[in-house]
Specification:
The complex is a heterodimer.
Chain A: H1 6-27, H2 33-41, E1 45-47, E2 52-56, E3 62-64, H3 65-78, E4 82-85, E5 91-93, H4 101-110, E6 127-128, H5 143-153, E7 168-171, E8 185-191, E9 197-203, E10 215-222, H6 226-240, H7 251-258, H8 260-273, H9 276-279, H10 283-291, H11 306-314, H12 316-325, E11 326-328, E12 334-339, E13 350-352, H13 353-366, E14 370-373, E15 379-385, H14 389-398, E16 413-414, H15 429-438, H16 442-448, E17 453-456, E18 470-477, E19 480-487, E20 499-500, H17 507-524, H18 531-538, H19 540-548
Parallel strand pairs in A: 6-7, 7-8, 16-17, 17-18
Antiparallel strand pairs in A: 1-2, 2-5, 3-14, 4-5, 4-13, 8-9, 9-10, 11-12, 12-15, 14-15, 18-19, 19-20
Helix pairs in contact in A: 1-2, 1-4, 3-13, 6-8, 7-8, 11-12, 15-17, 17-19
Chain B: E1 2-5, E2 8-12, H1 20-25, E3 31-34, H2 40-43, E4 52-56, H3 64-74, E5 80-84, H4 92-98, E6 102-105, H5 107-112, H6 115-122, E7 127-128, E8 141-142, H7 143-147
Parallel strand pairs in B: 3-4, 4-5, 5-6, 7-8
Antiparallel strand pairs in B: 1-2, 1-6
Classes of the chains: A alpha+beta, B alpha/beta.
Chain lengths: 551, 149
C-alpha cells in the first residue's frame, strides 16, 4: 500500500497545525461559528446530536495493521472505546471533545492518516473496490489512480469552496463493487481498442433527495489526461453549479438542468483550453505510486488444501461462514476474507477498540498487514492463504467477529439515524437490528440468498436506501416515525434507483411487511433467482399485494 | 474596505469600480468589477486594455471567484487582480494560488481577523499537490515537481 514520503508527511503535519490554529482562533473569537463551520467540516468535524463527531479518512478503504492499532488507541483515549465504519470507507468517532481534536490529528499524522475533506463542500475521500488487487474480475488495481486523485484533490486551491460536496469512486473490475454510478464522478478502468487501459468517466450520479444514476460523460480518457479532464469538469461545476438551494447544488442537478450533451460540450470546451502537460503528473510519478500497489509476495500454494477441506467438513459453523464470507481470489490457494461488522443486535459498522486490535493482528499474521474497509460497512482481509483460514476464523470467533452473513439479509447498510445524527428524522439502527433479529436463523438467511437491505434515517440517504434491493427510509409524520419502502434498487453495473411501494409503515408494521415480501419472493422465485431478479421479473404489483393486502 | 497584499495591510480604499456593463459601454477606463457569474467571452476583446480587475465574492463559501481568476490568467490577463468580499484568512492562499494579487475585505471582517492572521495564513503551507497553481511570494513548491528535483 501507499507510504508517505517526506513531502506527504510535511503536508499532513502542516494541515494538522493549520487546524489546530483554526480551533484556537474559534475559541478566542477571531473566527465566528459561521466562519469556523465550513473549516471544521473540511476537516471531518461535525457537531452532532449529543457531541462532536470526527470522521477520519481511509483513502480508498486501504489501511495497515499499524494504522488500525492507532485507530484503536484513539478510540480508547479520546472516545468511548469504539469506532464506526461508514459508507465512504471512512471511520468516525462519535464522542471526541473539540479541544482534543488537534491532538487526535497529530496521532493520526504519526501513522500517515488525516481527516482532510471527510466532510464539507469539497472533494471527499475517493472510494474504491474493497477487493482491489485480489479480485478475479479485475482489469487493473484502481488504487494507484485513487491515490493520485487523493493527492490532487487535497486542499485544492480552486475546488475547496464548491457548491456542494463532491464524491468520486473508481473501480478496476467488471463487476462494480464501488457503486460508481451513484457518485458525482464514477471512474471505470477499461481497455480501448489499442489495448491500452484508461478510464471511462461517469458523471452526475448521486443519492440524497434526488437519486440519479450517473451517465457516461466520456468513453475513454488516458490516465495521463485524467487529472486535466477532472479539472475541466470541476471548473464547469464550480462556476455553474447552483448555489441558491443546497438541495439542488450537486453536479447531478447541473447535468440534469443543462442536459448531458450540452454539459459535455462545456466540459470539452474547457478541457480544450487547458494545457494538459501543466496539470498532469509525469509518467515517473504514476510509476512511483503504482509501485506501492504491486502484488504482494504470494506463496506458491496449491488450490486445494487438505486442512481447509477437512475443517469445512468437520465444522458446520465454519462451513456456513466460509459459504458467505469468502470470495474468490485471483491467485489459486488464496482467498478474500470478508469480516462482517453486522452481528445480531449490533450497530452496523461499529467495532470496539479490542476488535480493531484483533483485526490488526490478523492482518499482520495472515494478509500482508493490509486491511480494507468496504462501503457496505464491513472489513476485508484481501490476501489470505486458504490453509490459514480456519485458524483465522477461530480467532474471529473469539473476538465475536465471525458473523457469517456477508451479502445476506442481515448484512444491512445503515446510517446512524436518530441515535446520533442531528439531521435524522427517524431511528435506523434499531430497524436494522429488528430485521436481523427476525431473520436471525442462519439457515433461513442462506435460503433467502443475496439480499441488500439499506436503511436511511432521513431523506439525505446516507444509508443508500435508493439503491438497496429493499430500501427503507425513515421519516417523521406528526411526531410519529414512519418508514417508506423502496424496491428494486441496485448499486452495481446494472445500477437502478428503487421505486417506492406506497404508503409507509410504522416501526412495528415494517418488520412484518418485510417478512411478507420475503415469503412472496421465496414462493415465486425461479431457480437461482435473487430477490432482485424475481422483483425485476414479476414487478411491483405482487409485492404491493402482500404489503397492503390488495391481492 | 481594507486592502491586503503579500500579507500586509495596505490601508483603506474606497470607491467602486465600474461593473462590466458600464465598462463595456464606455471606451475609456482600465478597471472593472466582475461578478462571479461573469461570461468572460464578453470581456475577452477588451482584456488587454485592463490594468485592474476586481472579482466579487458574495460570501466566503462561494468559490466561483477562484475559477474566474484562474480563467482570467489563462486568457492572458497580467494586470492587478483583486478578490473583493467577505473572505477569511484561511482562503487567502487559495486566492493567491488561483492568480489573485490581493484581497479587499470589509472593515468589520478585518477587525476580527487582523494583519497577523492574514500574514500567518500566507505561510501556512509551502507545499502543494496541484500543478499549475503557482505562488511567487513567498515561493511555494509543487510536490510532484519537488519529488524529481
Amino acid at each position: 500500500m501507499y507510504r508517505y514520503d517526506e513531502f506527504d508527511h510535511t503536508f499532513v503535519r502542516a494541515r494538522s497545525q493549520q487546524f489546530k490554529r483554526q480551533v484556537e482562533r474559534r475559541l478566542d473569537g477571531s473566527l465566528s461559528e459561521e466562519q469556523f463551520r465550513p473549516l471544521r467540516l473540511m476537516n471531518g468535524l461535525y457537531l452532532q446530536l449529543h457531541a462532536y463527531m470526527l470522521r477520519v479518512a481511509i483513502p480508498y478503504g486501504t489501511f495497515s495493521g499499524k494504522q488500525m492499532r492507532q485507530l484503536a488507541m484513539i478510540a480508547d483515549k479520546y472516545d468511548r472505546g469504539y469506532g464506526h465504519f461508514t459508507t465512504r470507507q471512512n471511520i468516525q468517532y462519535n464522542w471526541p471533545d473539540l479541544v482534543d481534536v488537534p491532538a487526535i490529528l497529530e496521532d493520526l499524522a504519526d501513522v500517515e492518516m488525516h481527516a482532510i475533506q471527510t466532510s464539507g463542500n469539497c472533494i471527499r475521500n475517493t472510494t474504491s473496490d474493497p477487493w482491489a488487487g485480489a479480485a478475479i474480475d479485475e482489469i487493473e488495481d484502481p488504487r494507484p489512480i485513487a491515490e493520485l486523485i487523493r493527492q490532487w484533490s487535497s486542499l485544492h486551491p480552486e475546488f475547496t469552496y464548491l457548491p456542494r460536496k463532491f464524491k468520486i469512486a473508481i473501480t478496476g473490475a467488471s463487476n462494480d463493487r464501488a457503486a460508481i454510478r451513484a457518485h458525482d464522478i464514477g471512474l471505470q478502468i477499461v481497455q480501448n481498442d489499442a489495448g491500452e487501459n484508461g478510464l471511462q468517466v461517469y458523471v452526475g450520479g448521486g443519492l440524497g433527495r434526488t437519486p440519479i444514476i450517473g451517465n457516461v460523460l466520456r468513453e475513454f480518457i488516458s490516465r495521463h489526461e485524467l487529472l486535466p479532464y477532472l479539472e475541466a469538469i470541476m471548473r464547469v461545476y464550480n462556476r455553474y453549479g447552483r448555489r441558491d438551494n443546497k438541495y439542488k447544488a450537486r453536479i447531478k442537478i447541473l447535468v440534469q438542468e443543462t442536459g448531458l450533451e450540452k454539459f459535455r460540450d462545456e466540459v470539452e470546451a474547457e478541457y480544450a483550453q487547458l494545457e494538459p502537460l501543466d496539470i498532469a503528473v509525469p509518467q515517473e510519478e504514476l510509476n512511483r505510486i503504482a509501485d506501492y500497489f504491486s502484488a504482494p509476495d504470494y506463496d506458491d500454494v496449491s488450490s486445494s488444501d487438505e486442512g481447509y477441506d477437512k475443517a469445512v467438513i468437520l465444522h458446520s459453523d465454519f462451513a456456513g461462514w466460509v459459504r458467505s464470507n469468502l470470495s474468490e481470489h485471483k491467485i489459486s490457494g488464496y482467498t478474500i476474507v470478508n469480516i462482517s461488522l453486522k452481528p445480531l443486535k449490533g450497530a452496523p459498522g461499529d467495532i470496539s477498540a479490542d476488535q480493531m486490535r484483533v483485526v490488526a493482528d490478523l492482518a499482520q499474521e495472515y494478509s500482508f498487514d493490509e486491511i480494507r474497509a468496504t462501503h457496505e460497512q464491513n472489513l476485508v482481509l484481501a490476501n489470505v492463504k486458504k490453509s490459514d483460514v480456519y485458524a483465522l476464523y477461530q480467532k474471529l470467533v473469539v473476538a465475536e467477529l465471525a458473523t457469517g452473513n456477508i451479502g445476506l439479509i442481515s448484512d444491512i447498510i445503515c446510517c446512524p439515524g436518530m441515535d446520533y445524527c442531528a439531521l435524522a428524522t427517524a431511528r435506523s439502527i434499531p430497524v436494522g437490528q429488528a430485521i436481523s433479529e427476525r431473520f436471525s436463523d442462519p439457515e433461513r438467511q442462506r435460503v433467502i440468498g443475496e439480499m441488500k437491505i439499506k436503511i436511511s434515517g432521513c431523506i439525505n440517504a446516507c444509508g443508500h436506501h435508493h439503491i438497496g434491493h429493499i430500501g427503507i427510509l425513515g421519516l417523521e409524520k406528526a411526531g410519529v416515525e414512519t418508514y417508506q419502502v423502496k424496491l428494486g434498487g441496485d448499486a452495481t453495473s446494472t445500477a437502478e434507483v428503487g421505486k417506492v411501494t406506497g404508503k409507509g409503515f410504522s416501526f412495528d408494521e415494517l418488520i412484518d411487511a418485510i417478512e411478507r415480501m420475503i415469503d412472496l419472493y421465496l414462493r415465486e422465485r425461479d431457480t437461482g433467482e435473487r430477490f432482485l431478479d424475481t422483483y425485476r421479473r414479476i414487478g411491483m404489483e405482487p409485492f404491493k399485494g402482500v404489503l397492503y393486502g390488495t391481492d | 474596505m481594507v486592502l491586503i497584499r503579500n500579507g500586509v495591510e495596505l490601508g483603506h480604499v474606497s470607491g467602486e469600480l465600474p461593473d462590466l456593463e458600464t465598462y463595456l459601454a464606455g471606451n475609456e477606463g482600465d478597471s472593472v468589477l466582475l461578478s462571479p457569474d461573469v461570461d468572460l467571452e464578453t470581456l475577452k476583446p477588451r482584456l488587454s486594455g485592463l490594468a485592474l480587475i476586481e472579482v466579487s465574492f458574495p460570501s466566503f463559501t462561494d468559490g466561483r471567484g477562484f475559477s474566474v481568476a484562474k480563467q482570467l490568467r489563462r486568457l492572458g490577463y497580467e494586470g492587478e487582480l483583486i478578490a473583493t468580499g467577505p473572505l477569511i484568512p484561511d482562503q487567502y492562499l487559495c486566492a493567491v494560488q488561483c492568480g489573485f494579487d490581493a484581497v479587499k475585505i470589509e472593515q468589520e471582517c478585518y477587525v476580527r481577523q487582523s494583519e497577523g492572521e492574514w500574514n500567518e495564513a500566507l505561510h501556512a503551507f509551502d507545499l502543494f499537490y496541484q500543478r499549475g497553481y503557482v505562488r511567487q511570494n513567498p515561493v511555494s513548491r509543487n510536490i510532484t515537481e519537488a519529488r524529481y528535483e
